[in-house]
Amino acid sequence: MKDAFIRPWTCLLVATVIPAAAGTAAAQSDKTLTLEESVATALELNPDIPIAAERLAASEAMVKEARGGFLPNAYAEASYRRIDESPTVSIKDVPFELPPGLDSFSISPTESYEAGFRVDQVLFAGGRVLNSYRMAQSGSAAAAHNLEAVRNLIAYRVKEAYYTVLVTRRFRDVAEHAVTTLDAHLQDVTRSLEVGIVTKVDLLRT
After folding, report:
1. Which contacts (CB < 8 Å, 24+ apart) does range 192-196 have?
2. SS3 breakdown of the chain: % helix, strand, coil, rounded to 5?
3. Contact 32/134 with Cβ under 8 angstroms?
4. In this structure, which long-range contacts are made by residues 34-41, counting pairs with CB atoms below 8 Å and at least 24 apart in sequence?
5. Does the predicted model carry a pTM greater than 0.85?
6. What is the C-alpha to C-alpha distance for residues 111 and 86, in angstroms, rounded to an integer?
7. Phi and psi for 83 in degrees, rounded to 5?
8. Coil, helix or strand at residue 205
9. Cα separation of 95 and 72, whole Å?
10. 80: which strand partners?
11. C-alpha to C-alpha distance for 115 and 131, rounded to whole angstroms
12. Please, which residues have CB within 8 angstroms of residue 98's CB and are 6 or more apart in sequence?
């Protein structure tokens, strides 16, 4: 997977910056970081992990959105209308006399209210809703796998660098011990030369 491979500069961060920061912390606390502490520090500081985590969160949100396609959608509506003057109808030319106030009437009120509620449910979409949900699930699973792969690769790089430092220090200790041993032997031969036990040839061989 493309995202599972940490960029080169990230590997450089793990191999150099984090050990340096760990060394500074260890110097301040007079304590050497363990392998577990080094891995925890790298996982906390590496910028690739928050990026992968954000992608996982986004893919999980898409799963929830796709799941909503199976549920009904409810809508509530309301409106209010007011007119300054209501239209009226006048009654004229009738063969009898109308009571006062009944010779005309309004055909609509000056104020009106409307309210409604609607529920829509998809019954058949040709598999579109189900396919969208399955694709979202696959994307979420891939994002989760990518996050785990990034974490594992960072931990591997840190362990590799950690053991490399240990081996290098061991080689350094062996070399220092060899130098100390040779220096002590040289001093012994030099003292033997001074008292005439060995010759200059033996000193040069040393």
Report:
1. none
2. 65, 15, 25
3. no
4. 35/158, 35/159, 35/162, 38/158, 38/162, 39/154, 39/155, 39/158, 39/159
5. no
6. 9
7. -120, 145
8. helix
9. 59
10. 113
11. 36
12. 91
> Tokens standing for 16?
């150099």
CB count within 10 Å of CB 197 equals 11
**Consecutive H or E run containing 106:** strand 104-106
Total number of residues shown for the chain: 206
Tokens of 104: 């005309």
pLDDT per residue rounded down to tens, the chain (206 residues): 444 334 443 444 444 444 444 444 444 445 678 999 999 999 999 999 999 999 999 999 999 999 888 888 888 888 887 777 766 656 666 555 656 656 665 666 777 778 888 888 888 778 888 899 999 999 999 999 999 999 999 999 999 999 999 999 999 999 999 888 888 877 877 777 777 776 666 655 65
